[in-house]
Amino acid sequence: MSIDGRGVQSVEVGGRILAALVKAGRPLMLRELATMAEVAPAQAHAYLLSFRKLELVEQDAASGRYQLGPFALQLGIARLRSFDPLRLAANAVIGFAEEIGLMVTVGVWGTHGPTIVQVQEGSDQVHVNVRTGTVFSITGTATGKVFAAFMPPKIIEAQLGEELRKGARIQGVGAPTSRKELEAEVAMARQLGYAATESKPVTGINGIAAPVFDYSGQMQLAITLIGPTGVLDIGPNSKDAKALLAFTQKLSAQLGYAPDADGRAIQEAAEAEIAAAPVTKRRRRA
């Protein structure tokens, strides 16, 4: 998103200082904080004095280290209360589908399992029967498998058990598999950060689904790419997989999700690769 117009430089500098505290996730000494924010220590100190008056920042009397203050917490809580994950995703997937050229769906956990709440066509249109309100199986779709991998087991277990009992008679998109096979696919999804299906449940169609988390670490949404097998690459090193992960990680960050240090490293590496090799629009298939 671009922001037009001139800003206030001093506010932007102060923002860098606050952003450094957020990124560090721990109290910082003045010099360390100044280095991370790319400002001189004396300049950082002046900003920190004002931030302390506003209670955006507080300083530990014993160690002298700075950390975010109570007003910063109030701002975060206000943001979380007023922010709707579905509205955020609904607006974001429009541009994402146009950029990547593939169908993008938004799924939530509904009464009957994974439920599609938005379908956004890409330039490379896919002829599959997916529309708002479609219910996917847990075991037979990328969307379902990503819920199985990242939702609390107690939430999905009842629906999963029903699918495995009914077999081919389940009411939903995607033929079921065995529990043993699902467990292996779930383990792989947790390792990769996304779930995938190749040429199923629809022959010739691939799917990649990744989770969106909120500030508490709870999975809120599944974002899924759907495309022809010759167009959508489900491999872990593919541009499609990396683009999806960069997209869902950005949505998660906007919802307040803060992964651990390893998670941040993975996210930063994925975003760096996407920046180096931007996704191009795909040509329509003849």
Would you write up a description of this structure?
By secondary structure, the chain is an alpha+beta fold. 47% of the residues lie in helices and 15% in strands. A five-stranded antiparallel sheet has the order 4-3-7-6-5, sandwiched between helices. It has a two-stranded antiparallel sheet with strand order 1-2. Helix 9 packs across helix 10. The radius of gyration is 22 Å and the shape is elongated. 36% of the residues are buried. About 7% of the residues have low confidence.
Output the keywords.
286 residues, alpha+beta, five-stranded antiparallel beta sheet
Oligomer: single chain
What is the SS-derived class? alpha+beta
SSE ordering: HHHEEHHEEHHHEEEHH
Helix content: 40-55%
Sheet with the most strands: spatial strand order: 4-3-7-6-5
Q: Count of helices?
A: 10
Q: For the terminal residues, how far apart are their CA atoms?
A: 33 Å
**Mean pLDDT figure:** 82
Rg over CA atoms:
22 Å
State the shape.
Answer: elongated
Biggest pleated-sheet summary: 5 strands, antiparallel
SS elements, strand count: 7
Unreliably modeled segments: 261-281
- Residue fraction in strands: 15-25%
